[in-house]
Every structure is written in C-alpha cells, then in structure tokens.
Amino acid sequence: MFSEKPNIFTQFRHELHRFPEVSGQEVETQKRIKAFVRQFNPVTISEVGGTGLLLQYGHDDTGPVTLIRADIDALPIQEVNTFGHKSLIEGVSHKCGHDGHTAILAALASLLAEYPIGKGRVYLLFQPAEETGKGAEAVLNDPAFSAIRPDRAFALHNLPGYKQGTIVCKPGSFTASVLSMIVTFTGAVSHSAEPEKGLNPAYTMADFTLKSRALQQPNPQSDDFALITPVYTTMGSTSYGISAGYGEVHLTLRTRNAKKMETLTAQLVALLAELSAESGIDVDTAYTESFFANENDNAAFEQIKQSALKLEYDFVEKQEPFKWGEDFGLFTQHYPGAMFGIGNGEDSPALHNDDYDFNDNLIKPAAQLFLELIDIQHK
C-alpha cells in the first residue's frame, strides 16, 4: 500500500497547516485539496457545501454507497509553535487537527485509486465549517449531495491523551449534543446616581448565571450529564455616569443527546421567565452553533472494532460519550454510520490549545482502517 512516496501526505498536511482558513472561508484550502487529489483519479470531483469537495470512486449505481468524511476548517487561535510548518496566517491555526483529517482522506483517495472497489460507489467528503456546526448542514442541503444516500457513513477525530494509533469507539452516543444559547436582558438606562429611575440588568444576569449552575450534572458518566459553560458576557459601557440598560449572557450547553438538550433548554427558559417576572427585565433567547450527538450505529461500531482488530490496532471501547461536539452528528441523524477516534499521543497537547499539532504518524494507519471499512461494505 502507498506506492507513492510515503511523505507526500505529510508534506500536504504541513502545507495545509501553514495556510489555515476558518469556517466558511476555506477557499484556498479547497483549491489546494482539489489540486492535490486530482492525481488519484476520482470519477468526479464536485464542489459541495460552499467550500467543500466531494470525490466519487466507483461507477456502479446498483451497489452499496459508502461516505467517508473529513473536516477541513481551522480555528481563530494564534499558534505558539515554532516548527517549520507553523501557521503563516496571523490569529488562525489548525488546533483541532483538521489538516491531519484532510491528509488522511487524501491518503485514502490514493488507496482507492490503487485498489478499486468491486461494486457500488464510495464518496470522500472534505467538509467545511465543522467548528461552527454549519458545514454538515450546508453539505446535506446542497443539490450536489442530495442525490447521494449512503448506506454507511464514517468519520474520525484524533484524540490527544490516548496512545498513538489507538482506535477509540463506542456504540450509541459518541459525542455530546452541543448548543450555544444567547440571552439578552433589556431594561432601561438612567443616571448612575439615580439607578432607581432606570432598570439595570446586572443583578438579573448574575442571578441567571448563578442559578443555572444548579441545573448542571457535570459528571460525564451520568445518564443525566448536563454541562453549562458561560463563554461571554457584556453589559453597558465604560461611561461611568450611566447605569446600564442592556446586557447579554452567552452559554454553551452540553448533554448526552438531543432529548436531554430539549429538557435542559426548557429548564433554562423557565428560569429566565421567572427572573424576568421578578425583575421587570425583558429577556429574549436565541441559539447558535448546534451540534447533534454522534449516534453510532451498532453494526457500524462492530465493523470499526473488527477492522481495527484485523489490522492489529489497539482498540478501546469507551464507556461514556466525549463532552465535545462534532457536526458529523447531523449525518448520523440521517444515515447509519459511526465516528471513531484515533490516539494522537499520550503527551499531545489538548485540542484547541495553542501548542497543539496533529501527529503525522496517524495518516497511513487511519487511511488503511477506512479502506478496510470500505472493503467490508463493497465485497
């Protein structure tokens, strides 16, 4: 396998790392991927989801259809690493390893060119905007994708803290449901010497932030897991003669699944209604960056497990879902499939840390695992 020079995928990953682009702006990334994967002779290359790409392998319209997905976007984080492939874009870097995921999918394309599938079709999806939770939706709503109905859909994520190359998976929920909640508090401004003549939202905002903690169950092993993280707040201005009349509190919510998320958001809305009635402050809520839990199909999980063991990879069956969100969960709402993790190294900096980097040693084994999964579907 990998008859090409073995370092071309590492070189490609490093190129992507040097020129990262944030969600929805992956214009040059899309061009780089397209130019690189053409050498692996896909049947078609289609632009999808705005700045994504979809590669087709196989011509058979009657056989099984398999989708393998990788994410391509970077984060608005300034890199502190000083290695040769460090980010050249100020304030933007690949701190979740999507450059590595992209390189894995490119390596898989090379394997599919070398070992054509016997029947059916395989689609390789380079998906944009995973970090904002908008990329999967954009792909699923794109007419270029709508005619494809995968029988199986697979994806992976690298996992800092796990031994290099260890495959981590579980049936059922693999990642959390995640939703960001924006709460606005509208009162009335007044002179700061006469706050009683206005309606300052500060104490209502504080009450909400403190009382919401009682709705948490932060233990990830609990079936009632619910995490509420304040991420941003603003109120008034630095005009010290003015008592504020408007403020915002932004929270990120995490639960085991969509049903638990509905319960948690209903509890928070009820709390806000109670505080609004007590204070006279008008309260409004909005939601953004929604991530469905990745619901791993039992049969797809077993295929991942058996493929990993066949390749003699270490395998860990996780007992509880990861707390982070991943928008591949939207695909598992529509198609049977699964996401798995691959260890980035026990000493690897954590995801979204400014000193994180993807482990290049994962590119080949991850691509080979995907090929094994494809072989199972297309025998």
Automatic annotation (TrEMBL):
<dbReference type="InterPro" id="IPR011650">
    <property type="entry name" value="Peptidase_M20_dimer"/>
</dbReference>
<dbReference type="Pfam" id="PF07687">
    <property type="entry name" value="M20_dimer"/>
</dbReference>
<dbReference type="Pfam" id="PF01546">
    <property type="entry name" value="Peptidase_M20"/>
</dbReference>
<dbReference type="InterPro" id="IPR002933">
    <property type="entry name" value="Peptidase_M20"/>
</dbReference>
<dbReference type="InterPro" id="IPR017439">
    <property type="entry name" value="Amidohydrolase"/>
</dbReference>
<feature type="domain" description="Peptidase M20 dimerisation">
    <location>
        <begin position="178"/>
        <end position="276"/>
    </location>
</feature>
<dbReference type="InterPro" id="IPR036264">
    <property type="entry name" value="Bact_exopeptidase_dim_dom"/>
</dbReference>
<protein>
    <submittedName>
        <fullName>Amidohydrolase</fullName>
    </submittedName>
</protein>
<keyword id="KW-0378">Hydrolase</keyword>
